[in-house]
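Changelog excerpt

This revision adds worked examples to the README so contributors can see how folded entries look when concatenated. The first example is reproduced verbatim below.
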Amino acid sequence: MSINLIATTTFGLEAVVKRECQALGFQNIKTSDGKVEFTGDESDIVKANLWLRCAGRVWVKMGTFTAVTFTELFDRTKALPWGDWIPEDGKFTVVGKSVKSTLFSVSDCQAIVKKAVVEKLKEKYKTDWFDETGASYTIQVGILKDVVTLAIDTSGSGLHMRGYRASALDAPLKESLASAMVQLSYWRKDRILLDPFCGSGTIPIEAAMLARNIAPGLNRKFASEEWERIGKERWKQARKEAYQAIDYDVMPEIYGSDIDPAAIELAKANAELAGVDDCITFEVKPSQEIVLPGKYGVLISNPPYGERIGELKEVENMYRALGATMQTDPTWSTYIITSMEYFESLFSRKADRKRKLFNGRIKTDYYQYEGPRPPKKQKAEEN
């Protein structure tokens, strides 16, 4: 039976997640703001959670309809097949959001949906009492311009939680956004990658995992692992196949540096947990002192934005120095995410492309400076 699924995403990354869904073989893919919808079966729920690098969560779409009264919301929610997913001992919570809608009280909408689902399950299981000792299910009621979408979260914690981050420094870059930055660049596993503001190592680690074909969800748990309908055997088999798909023979040349020794120590620990510590070189170094290692490399970074008091001038000087460094070798490509709107003037070059992205709640631009591709002869030598 075909299941309607939703992969949520940060605004600006819909096309990246769509390409990931296509590569995974999902069907009937369509995009809209902040989400990619597709169809699949129970095995595809497992595959999406294990392999989507840039999505937020994967949801089972239960239904969508228009509702402007609580009666409509209750009746149409109750009409949906909740018993197909939630067993008699299942425990569930309802989360919600409402934007530009008649039913604007989120707490009231959550209560109505909860009541409707309970009534449906009472009919399904012929009981008035539920022990709620089984697996957990999170239902989301989302209302946008009076259109209600009801869905069940299959992921649990967000998919950016890979399981390799022991702890994080202030303002970390989400793993999902870091992977998207790499995928939006010209970098491939046979080219050098450098991140001179690597912090806890997220961009180099995500690049190395991509190069080695390491599934991003291998080292974490998911809410739907405990669901009866999916079954633990599917998860066990999918993980086995994902481990077999890892290519440890790939040795990408990746460098990460940062001025903070504590950040570099954390980056090394994170890389070890991710299984890529042998192909990333981390070092403590101010960005002004970096030397480009080799030709036709790719610099991808999330530098400081200069938003803290007293930091602006220092960051401006960093950007100027980075621009000067990149001018020393025109074979390199540069990709920088920052909220500083006049970055191009400091870098002394207009970007070839700009993409609007959100780093958390901070509105940023992804500046893309695309150098030449490596000559075919060099590619052959590197391979």
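The second example, added in the same revision:
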Amino acid sequence: MVAQGRHQGRYNARLFICGLPVLKQSLQVVLSLYLAMACSLASAASVVFLNPGKSTEAYWLSYAQFMQAAAKDLGMPLQVIYAERDPQRMVEQARAVLQATNRPDYLVFVNEDYAGPEILRLSKDSGVKLFAVSSTLTVDQQSLIGQSRERYPNWIGSLVANDEEAGYLMASRLIERGRALQPAGEMQLLAFSGAKQTPAAQFRERGLQRALAEHPDVRLRQLVYSEWNRQRAYEQAQQLLPRHPDATLIWAANDEMAFGAMRAAEELGRVPGKDLLFATLNNSAEVLQARLDERVSVLVSGHFTAGGWAMVLLHDYAAGLDFAARGGKDRHDALFMQLDKPQSQRLLQRIQGKRYDLDFRRFSVVGHPRQHDYNFSLQPLLD
């Protein structure tokens, strides 16, 4: 009832502001400009993003920065709250946001460590609409609590990147590069995955296995879970590389783990990009530079844009244009791309300069009624 009264009061305020009569002909122009501005401000949808990463973590920082650029361009107030890689802290942050007196219109969350169902439970009767990004609820979780707009009608949808395709792309291109160096015979591969319980790690592994099934001449010697952590991958690689000295291919589900394994390899006298090829994923300045230096042979990126594209969807939804009618309420967008050296250079310049100055309204269906779907990708940042 509190949330309902709050929204009703805001609605009445909008009617009052936007319905002011024009009293004098001489004031019509000035007043119309004022009213347009007032109505825009009154109707601007507010958003809170529960960022599961650390506030010092390159990936989640760039994720938030791209999201903030979209919010600014679309005129939407956005607050980013970092959970610092602590799932329990993230749930408590969700509780605080959803029980606050001044709640946002939308709460954007990530199903990190399977916290999604608890966040949805906390949102009940809050009046806040929820939207999942990057990792939405798993099939098992949805079998218990339903899909978006079912048991929790305020959970209006999700947008996730094609993580399985990313894992596949990394592996298949890595194998191609390996074959250029070793035209015949069995090749051996070591894999460093993320946190076992996260959907992103699971889907990327699935892509890796699909690529391996297409290449029976490539042998996966061992897959380990490095929890997205550089130090852990370094310690594991210290054991794995001497155990499998003939391994020439390294598949790492993010750049932090790739650099950990790379450090161990270099200490053993291996030369990344020469006798040991690395495929990895992310958009940090460090990994983009490593791609330019050819220490990383295959680099895939693009998923850090998901939050920014989600802002476009929420902007349209708030304007009465439901994104579900244009591509579905739960989207799996092809955000990942393999980056060559010129593309890595262009993205590096944007990352270093924090330059995400896109015209996000160009991707919105507001003002583009004939647009049948959203064309979200990394490409606009590379043009």
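Reviewer comment on example two: Residues 1-43 form one domain. Residues 1-42 have pLDDT under 50 and may be disordered.
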